[in-house]
Amino acid sequence: SHVPPPIMSRTFQELSQGLHAYTQAERLVDVPMPFPYVQLVHFLLLVWCIVIPMIMIEHVEAFTVAVPLCFLSVLGMYGINRICA
Predict the structure, then answer these.
(1) Cβ(56)–Cβ(70) below 8 Å
(2) Cα–Cα distance list, 13 to 22, 50, 85 (Å)
(3) Distance between CA 35 and CA 19 in Å, rounded?
(4) Angle, nearest 10°, between helix axes 35-59 and 63-84?
(5) pLDDT tens string 30-74
(6) Which pLDDT band holds residue 18 (cuts at 50, 70, 90)?
């Protein structure tokens, strides 16, 4: 079957743009995170782990609800940190 030239040209243009975007994203992976930034993020996660239980106990009356909320909150933050690492 015969594909009209404008459609074929557009197909190759889209493939070229996709390959270019992939190459740009691949370059981002090769750039390491600055060490001070990583240390700051780890410190702020530690502060989060210390402060969030105090905030939960203050604002949630039921202890049985506050503990899982704290756990899920801290787990979520550490999970996001591990995904980005």
Answers:
(1) yes
(2) 14, 52, 34
(3) 31
(4) 170
(5) 888 889 999 999 999 999 999 999 999 889 989 899 999 999 999
(6) very high
